[in-house]
Design a protein that fits this description.
Layout lengths: L11 E5 L4 H12 L3 E6 L8 E5 L5 H11 L2 E6 L15 H22 L3 E10 L12 H20 L4 E7 L13 H11 L10 H13 L7 E4 L6
Parallel strand pairs: 1-2, 1-4, 2-3, 4-5, 5-6, 6-7
Helix pairs in contact: 1-6, 2-3, 3-4
Amino acid sequence: MSDTSLSLKQQQVVVIGGTSGIGLEVAQAAARRGAIVTVIGRSAKAGDNIRAVAADVTDSAALAKAFAAIGKIDHLVLTAGARVGSPRLTELKREELELAFNVKLFGALFAIQAALPYLSPTASVTLTSGLLSRKFGPGGLLKSTLNAAVEAAAKNLAKELAPRRVNVVSPGVIDTELWGETGAESRVAAMARIGQTLPVGRVGTPQDVAQVYLLAIENGFVNGAVLDVEGGGLL
């Protein structure tokens, strides 16, 4: 029986959006497994054994420069997203829609394009969507369409970039700074309220989600998949 798992020791892992939240946790988890990790974000903030490069995901020239400095890339992870609200159609603003798509979809696609000369033949690419791609309701228009587009793009790329693997991690509600300052009363209350609605009885942590990104990276037989980590929020 063949072993489809891949060791991350001395593998080059690049996390775009890796200076905070889920992306930072993915970067730290990969570094603990022995990977050589570079995070790319709007600030050059990094943790132990992690190199940081300041670049915006929508700046293709800056990304190309960063990739050239890194050299061969074994695993590319994209977690960057814009902080946007959940407007209904009557409240939807073109600027907000364009910002969301420019960062999370177009930014990701052009980042992958810029990384192509450096992606190893067996590289993995992991994108990020969200449970709203398949959970619908008033106010979900922007995020539902955006996340569904990310998932569709990834499945196409899994065919187009083969034998490189392309997957998507789809988180549910995760307790990060997107919900406010750590320890803030409003954040604690929101996490408790939402957690009570989920079958697992709690919201997710960045550590929960990072484990799924590592699955997509390390398992060489996972390809074209959307990996849900949402505590049963889609049920």
